[in-house]
Amino acid sequence: MDTPKVILQNFVNWTKKKIRHHSGRQPNNFYFREKEIWWAALGQNIGYEANGKHELFERPVLILKKYSGGMCFVLPCTTQIKSDSPWYQYAIMIDGTPSAVNLSQGRTISTKRLLRKIETADTEVYNDIVEKFSEQFRQKDV
């Protein structure tokens, strides 16, 4: 676990990078589609939210839904495959590395956070992910 000083420094570093992302390129300078996996600047987040990694605060994300040229809904990816958890159930390959889509951490982001395309997910795998993600909202607590 990081010390409070390290956590504070991560927030300071992320804030500087976030300002650059916000004032940088306009959202329509590139094209992206649903099913694609991109490196995205997710940042330093609060508590158990999925953080970006390394000094660039980036993480692979699967584009689940394109809302416009400037907004999309993404699911972050992780190399921590937890086969016993319904939130990490669907393994995918990213640059030859087994990875999982974290269904519990989906969020809408500005496309200014998208850094570079990695690859496109297989259609069957993508459809399974969409179905499993949707199921999570149809389940009722007992």
* Largest pleated sheet: 7 strands, antiparallel
Distance between the termini: 34 Å
Low-pLDDT regions: none
Q: List the domain count as a whole number.
A: 1
- Backbone structural class: alpha+beta
Number of helices: 2
The counted number of beta strands is 7
Q: Classify the fold: give the CATH topology.
A: SH3 type barrels
* Fraction in beta strands: 25-35%
Oligomer state of the chains in this structure? single chain
Radius of gyration: 16 Å
Q: Mean of the pLDDT scores?
A: 78
Helix content: 25-40%
Q: What is the CATH C-level name?
A: Mainly Beta
CATH architecture: Roll
The general outline is globular
List descriptors:
142 residues, alpha+beta, SH3 type barrels, seven-stranded antiparallel β-sheet, 7 strands, 25% helix, globular
Tell me about this structure.
The structure is a single chain. This protein is of the alpha+beta class. It has a single domain (4-138), classed as Roll (SH3 type barrels). 25% of the residues lie in helices and 30% in strands. It contains two helices and seven strands; from the N terminus they run αβββββββα. The protein has helices at residues 4-23, 123-138; strands at 36-41, 58-66, 71-78, 91-94, 97-101, 107-110, 114-120. Strands 1, 2, 3, 4, 5, 6 and 7 form a seven-stranded antiparallel beta sheet that branches. Strand 2 and strand 3 form a beta hairpin. The longest helix has 20 residues, at 4-23. The mean pLDDT is 78.
